[in-house]
Amino acid sequence: MARNRSKIVLSLFFTIGLLFVSQYLYARAGGGSSSGGSLWLKLILLPFILIYVAIKKQNIAQKKRESSQVLALAAQEDPIWNENNLKSHTQQIFFKMQQAWMDRNLVYVKNLISKELYDNYKVQLDFMKTNHEKNMMESIEIKGITIISTEDYKDNSRDAFVAYVEGKMIDYSINELTGKIIKNKKQESAYFADTYHFTRSGNDWILNNISNKVSISDIKQSVNIKEG
Fold it and tell me: Which of 168, 182, 134, 139 is nearest to 35 (CA)?
């Protein structure tokens, strides 16, 4: 019975944490969106958030350790698994995707992302164009990039990795006809945490997905494996 109560309490923490974190998401590459949230609500939820963030950081640290072990072994056989290169590639793709999102034009990243992701984002960006909505991002600062998932198989076409990207930016949207700000009207700088999912194509890494809402469950389910 006590164990069940503990699970319920933890579940409550996680749920409240997700609600709070979602307040900081607007419409950067990946499609996250939210309306902000009032200060008093944030203050009330602060103790729950601190617990949630602490647990999340513990899980990220654990996945980082697991991934680093796999990467160290994989890089001995194949230099494509160099950890610093994976982080550098992720950072380059991150900024290219933000620019493509602001321009509402995927032409410059088409060869860097999967067809599924291209088709998905094109629908979203075309919808934004129809509604004269333009996403603006300023003062982008990456605080850290952590590889939390490494999948190295004998069949290279199955290889994949996931990078956890966190930082701060000013993220808002405008109506391009009127110039009025329609999201994040105060242009507040906000924290973000995304996961960038890559799959292997020959000797290149192709972006297959971006998640703007990364839960503890998502992190726990990250896979680290080196086959045979």
Answer: 182
| Contact between residue 89 and residue 197 where contact means Cβ atoms under 8 Å apart | no
CATH number at residue 8: 3.10.450.240
- Could you give the maximum distance between any two Cα atoms of the chain, in Å? 59
3-class secondary structure, 203 = coil
The Cα–Cα gap between 151 and 77 comes to 14
pLDDT digit string, tens, across residues 10-66:
554 444 444 444 434 345 776 654 445 556 666 777 788 888 889 999 999 999 999
Query: Could you tell me if 198 and 188 are in contact, meaning their C-beta atoms sit under 8 angstroms apart?
Result: no
Q: Where are the alpha helices (DSSP H) in 78-188?
A: 83-103, 115-130
- The number of domains in the chain is 1
List the domain range (segments joined by +) for residue 42: 2-226
- Give the pTM: 0.85
